[in-house]
């Protein structure tokens, strides 16, 4: 590779050799048995170096996981371009960038306005073509989906009804389907079920640019934009499923969410503060939300001012089967109230088990987490 990398210090070169030596064998234990026949001193040396290796790899892994969380990486390979001077993300989907622009003619691949990226003809399922300029002044849902994807088909059925309700309520709203289908026939079959617009399947370059613009890493994804083309929420899928009557359209993000089956997928996006409460009563959950909301708003505002995503999501969890499953999976105590931060990608948890949760306790817990002062427990 002709580029830079996170350092693996020279002083640990022998440890790296031990690591490669161990990894070249199916079983470290069986290798150790053979070494045992040579000399006890070799075993002692190897054990010491392996311990150094464990420490080194642990530190390295923590650093890598911090980067994963900071840039919300959900799969690999993943290539993210950032501005070295500011640390801000330039492009989340670098793999598509280098595929579409191998000569680097569009470098530094900074984000462009939605209106510029989507510019061109759009289709209706009856074959009629309209210009993308018709989207001006409307809220827009950019829908990344495909017929071969079962969750996509399920969401599409719900989204069709949501779309109709929003339109019947007199809201200026349009959806643009960006297909990930594997053939044009499949695209046409799927699009025939949709009452909204689509980027022509033949316009692969425009579909790819839209994927790049929003750093799409999985489908289905629904990005909701305001009339100026700014992102309101990247969690349109969750919002549609949680608000079947579309009463909260256009779904501006809430600082604190009540944990449900449909939004539990967000626990995998990065560290999440989850306050478990003792009752199924809505009043108990609402009081918990009000308790942590000022802290959540403060954190969100702080990072928004830096044009960065907040490093934490905030949830309140009541008593239901899904919450019980989460407690079991993360091996959490049954106590309530229970204040936690769960980091699924790092398989780590941070637990504050006290009799009473106060705003001061929550704020101190969050501050210590962000300052790396808390010791994680394994999930």
TrEMBL record:
Its EC number is 1.8.1.8. It catalyses: [protein]-dithiol + NAD(+) = [protein]-disulfide + NADH + H(+); [protein]-dithiol + NADP(+) = [protein]-disulfide + NADPH + H(+). Residues 108-265 form the Thioredoxin domain. It comes from the Eukaryota. PROSITE patterns: THIOREDOXIN_2. InterPro entries: NRX_PDI_b (IPR041861), Thioredoxin-like_fold (IPR012336), Thioredoxin-like_sf (IPR036249), Thioredoxin_domain (IPR013766), TryX_NRX_thioredoxin_dom (IPR045870). One of its GO terms (molecular function) is thioredoxin-disulfide reductase (NADPH) activity. GO terms for biological process: circulatory system development; negative regulation of protein ubiquitination; negative regulation of Wnt signaling pathway; Wnt signaling pathway. It is an enzyme of class 1 (oxidoreductase). SUPFAM superfamilies: Thioredoxin-like. GO terms for cellular component: nucleus. Belongs to the nucleoredoxin family. This is Nucleoredoxin. The lineage of its organism: Eukaryota, Metazoa, Chordata, Craniata, Vertebrata. The gene is NXN.
């Amino acid at each position: 590779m002709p580029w830079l990398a996170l350092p693996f210090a020279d002083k640990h070169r022998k440890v790296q050799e031990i690591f490669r030596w161990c990894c070249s064998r199916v079983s470290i234990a069986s290798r150790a048995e053979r070494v045992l026949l040579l000399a006890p001193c070799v075993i002692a040396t190897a054990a010491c170096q392996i311990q150094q290796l464990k420490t080194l790899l642990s530190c390295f892994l923590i650093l890598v996981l911090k980067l994963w969380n900071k840039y919300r990486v959900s799969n690999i390979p993943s290539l993210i371009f950032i501005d070295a001077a500011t640390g801000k993300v330039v492009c989340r989907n670098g793999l598509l960038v280098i595929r579409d622009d191998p000569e680097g003619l569009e470098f530094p691949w900074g984000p462009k306005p939605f209106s510029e990226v989507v510019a061109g003809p759009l289709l209706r399922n009856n074959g009629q073509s309209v210009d993308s300029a018709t989207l001006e002044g409307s809220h827009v849902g950019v829908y990344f989906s495909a017929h071969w994807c079962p969750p996509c088909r399920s969401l599409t059925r719900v989204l069709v009804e949501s779309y109709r309700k929003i339109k019947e309520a007199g809201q200026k709203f349009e959806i643009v389907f960006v297909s990930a289908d594997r053939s044009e026939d499949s695209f046409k079959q799927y699009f025939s079920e949709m009452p909204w617009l689509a980027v022509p399947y033949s316009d692969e370059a425009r579909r790819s640019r839209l994927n790049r613009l929003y750093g799409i890493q999985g489908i289905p994804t629904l990005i909701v934009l305001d009339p100026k083309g700014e992102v309101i929420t990247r969690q349109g899928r969750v919002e549609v499923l949680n608000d079947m009557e579309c009463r909260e359209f256009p779904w501006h993000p809430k600082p604190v969410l009540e944990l449900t089956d449909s939004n539990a997928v967000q626990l995998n996006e990065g560290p999440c503060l989850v306050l478990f409460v003792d009752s199924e009563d809505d009043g108990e959950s609402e009081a918990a939300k009000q308790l942590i909301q000022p802290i959540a708003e403060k954190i969100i505002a702080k990072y928004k001012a830096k044009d960065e995503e907040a490093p934490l999501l905030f949830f309140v969890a009541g008593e239901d089967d899904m919450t019980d499953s989460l407690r079991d999976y993360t091996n959490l105590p049954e106590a309530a109230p229970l204040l936690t931060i769960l980091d699924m990608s790092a398989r780590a948890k941070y637990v504050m088990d006290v009799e009473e949760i106060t705003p001061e306790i929550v704020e101190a817990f969050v501050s210590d987490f962000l300052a790396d002062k808390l010791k994680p427990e394994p999930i």
